[in-house]
Specification:
Blueprint: E1 9-10, E2 14-18, H1 24-31, H2 48-56, E3 62-69, E4 72-85, E5 89-96, H3 105-119, E6 124-129, H4 134-142, E7 146-157, E8 160-170, H5 171-178
Parallel strand pairs: 5-6
Antiparallel strand pairs: 1-2, 2-3, 3-4, 4-5, 6-8, 7-8
Length: 179
């Protein structure tokens, strides 16, 4: 797979720009939040160095955006997309500072990234989330993702061995829902 650039994306209220190590202090507020990180694959960060390491880690095939509000370049969350295999299939993940929950920001940011990856030719995007992560599952369903699988004891995480739910969205369905 050819690496793609991470373009700057805009929406009504947001600017999504390539995430960088300069975002570590702002994103540490997220990655150190024990409750927010409960459903994440790793435990909350105890030290800033962990956040810097997370942000700077090379993940071939992945791109990550910092979610910022127009007029304020402070990262309030992140959306990441990884091209998983040939055939134009991508995985998406996201996290948003709790102070910005409930206002539709996550939906706006994830929607904008989905628009981008489908415009680039992806035919399918999927998300992998814990079955008990009601908020994330709700967001995916509101965006039109369909529950496609339930894998038992799929992940070993900081909260133990966990099941996972897999949600998928096809480009054709996304385009039809936007018309």
């Amino acid at each position: 797979m050819t690496p793609r650039e991470t373009p700057v994306l805009t929406s009504e209220r947001l600017i999504l720009r390539p995430r960088s190590v300069a975002d570590a202090a702002a994103l540490h507020a997220i990655f150190s939040d024990v409750e927010l990180m409960h459903w994440w694959s790793s435990a909350a960060h105890e030290r800033m160095e962990q956040t810097v390491e997370e942000i700077s880690r090379e993940r071939p095939g992945w791109r990550a955006w910092a979610i910022t509000l127009k007029g304020d370049d402070t990262a309030i969350g992140t959306v990441a997309v990884g091209e998983k295999r040939q055939g134009n299939v991508a995985e998406i993940g996201y996290i948003l500072n709790r102070a910005h929950w409930g206002g539709g920001i996550a939906r706006e940011a994830v929607s904008r990234v989905i628009d981008q990856i489908f415009d680039e030719g992806q035919r399918r995007v999927f998300a992998d989330t814990d079955p008990d992560n009601v908020a994330s599952r709700g967001l995916l369903e509101r965006l039109g993702f369909k529950l496609e699988g339930y894998l038992r004891q799929e992940w070993e995480t900081h909260i133990g061995v966990r099941d996972t739910t897999l949600y998928g969205l096809l480009r054709d369905d996304w385009i039809a829902s936007r018309s």
